Amino acid sequence: MAGCASGLTVDAVRAAKLIRCQFPPLAALPVTPLGEGGDHRAFAVGQRWVFRFPKHSGGGQGLLREARLLTWLAPHLPLPVPVPVFVGQPDRDFPEAFTGALRLTGRSGLETPLLKWEEVGRSVGRFLRVLHAQGAGTARALGLTLDFDPTYSDWQEAALEDLEALSRQWPEVQSWREVLNQTPTSQPGQLAVIHGDLAAEHVFLSDRAEITGILDWADAAIGDPARDLAGLIHWGGRAMLDAALAEYGKTEAGVIERAAWYALCRALEDMAFGLRWDRPTYVEGGKRALTILHMEFADTLTKPR
Prior knowledge:
alpha+beta; Phosphorylase Kinase, domain 1; 2 domains; 5-stranded antiparallel beta sheet; 10 helices; 10 strands; kinase activity; kinase
């Protein structure tokens, strides 16, 4: 495979070379950029496939872990997930693994006006009920790691940094500092297999507002189930959260408090990401989430300690 490419920077031309080198049956298909996040670049290969390439050293191991996890989870979950069919192996031409999966239909919830909050919320609630019930022991054996700090300082420190960066342009965000300084008072009774980054951009929807897939499992972990519920608050507020919980079933005391606090951290993170990378949809999504939290969860976030 010598001469395919080198280094970690991948554009469409280089992605095509790497795919052609390891998967000759796909060589004739066009390769076009789909977008990128903090960790991966994604490319459409023909009309059927999506390939993801890591942007950072060590990212290939994360994609391999994700591939193992999704292969295990997919038969149990009530919604589609992008199980990798192609796994590109690291070699001297590209030092990290990369993966290719069937392209799920629909559009990201971040880009889709959503009117059926309750219907989508119920579907996600059923999905999370099944996901969070999966065996943590099996997930650990597949490489999933523990991601929970009982002091919440990891989330708090990152959110305060985002707050400082954002306040230069939007001084009003400083009003959230007191809430961030008060970390959640509760602890999860049991950690679970979580998506870890469940929010509008990772839920694909059809034109009829039916969920067609849950994407991007790079942050999946053994962690606090409230983190996944936070994505519902961030996206659709109280209406979506309540609809999800009606299907999810019984929750422990404190889970809504933690979910709202995580949603605040996530809103600031999205705004900072959008500002840094000129992604206005993320900025607007974060602003909308702050409005939701102020209007619908203020009592939860500021209750007496």
